[in-house]
C-alpha cells in the first residue's frame, strides 16, 4: 500500500487493541496516517482493564516505520472522550479521521434483559460514538475537513436474537452517522457507517448449541477481521471526498451498500381513516410487503467469498 494515501492525516481508532479495530489501526498506519490507538483492554462485556493490547498495536506500527500512541480513555465518558481527542492534538497536532469501533456485548433475551445490561451497551456502543464524534467536531469544523467512520452491525440493520441492547445501539449509530453527515456537510466533514462481518472475540460469544448455530459459527470463523481494514482506509481518504451519509458492509472479499428506509407502499382515502377502515383496507393492502422477522443469517445465506 502507498503511504501517500493518508500521508499527513491523524486518525483516532477506538477499541483498536484487538479484532477489527486492530486491523483498521494497522491499515491506516500503513497508509501513512499517524494513529491514536485507543483501548482500555476490557472484556467483551466491558469489564476490567488491560493496557497490553493497545501497547502491542502501537509497537507493531512503530516496528513497521509508522507513528502511533496509546490512549486508554473510555468512550463511555464525556470527559474521557474529549481527552482522547486531545491526545491526538497533543501528540500529532491535529485530528482528521475518527473510527468509532469500540463496543461491548451483554447478550440476553429481551424479556430477561436487565436495565444494567441494556444501559451498559447503549453507553459504550451508542453514547460513546456521540461523545467521541462530538469531541472531534470543533477540530473538524475549524480545519474545514474530517472523516467519521462508525462501526454499525447487521444486528441493528437487520436483526438478531438476544441482542435488543446491541441492535438498538447499532441502528442508532447508523442514524447518528446520517445526522452527522447532514449537519457537518457545510464544513466539508463526512460521516459514514460500516457493518463488518469478522470472527473476533465478541463474535466468539455467540451460542453454538444447535446444529444450525454450530454451522453458522463455523462459517463466521472464516471471516478475517483484517479484511475490513482496506475499505475503511479507502473511505477515510480524500479519494472518497464525495462519499457521505452512506451505510456499507464488508464481509471478507464482499462489499455492500445498504438501503436506507424509504416508503414502500402507500394507502390514501379522501374521507380520512377510522380504526375499522384501517383494519379492513390498509393491513390487507400492505400484507405482502410486510418484512418478515429475519435475522442477519437469514438474509446473508451464502458462504463468504
UniProtKB/TrEMBL annotation:
The lineage of its organism: Bacteria, Pseudomonadati, Pseudomonadota, Betaproteobacteria, Rhodocyclales. InterPro entries: KR_dom, NAD(P)-bd_dom_sf, Peroxisomal_Beta-Oxidation, Sc_DH/Rdtase_CS, SDR_fam. This is Ketoreductase domain-containing protein. Residues 9-205 form the Ketoreductase domain. It comes from Thauera terpenica 58Eu. It holds the Pfam family adh_short. PANTHER family: BLL2957 PROTEIN, DEHYDROGENASES, SHORT CHAIN. Belongs to the short-chain dehydrogenases/reductases (SDR) family.
